[in-house]
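job 3f2a | input accepted
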Amino acid sequence: MTGARGVCDVVLYSPDHNLLPSQLTVEQWAKVIELWTRRSVELFANPDIQYVSIFENTGVAIGVTMPHPHGQIYGFPFVPPLVQTELDSASDHFREHGACLCCDILSGEIEDGRRLVSSNDSFVAFLPFFGRFPTELQIYARRHVGSLSDLTPNERRILHH
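job 3f2a | predicted structure (161 res):
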């Protein structure tokens, strides 16, 4: 028996709970990103937490139970099977090609260009070819980093712009 050792945070983006993420100010997004970063560091400091997932929870297809825009932060006492498969694939890719799978995906998306949504000097947002949902958006740092806490303060500032 493992007991309940995980964490589930609901993140409300603004005191005005009905604002869409696209309607938030740069200052509000700065606070959200700092919260994501701080919570990730806190959760990973807990030896019971093996995986942290931060995501926007939008739409009935995802199982939204709150009518207003919000995000969630999950801290799992295990690595979910789908994530473990992705990690194993990344390890296999590195062994076979000597390169980071995420860096190669980013390179391919930039080269292809069809699924790019936005980019700047630090980040690229795109609809991945492997997306599980039609509106799945992923944001990759151009610099090889492992987590939000690895971003510089300037990169975190750029992320919310």
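job 3f2a | The beta strands are 7-11, 51-57, 70-76, 116-119, 123-126, 138-141.
job 3f2a | closed
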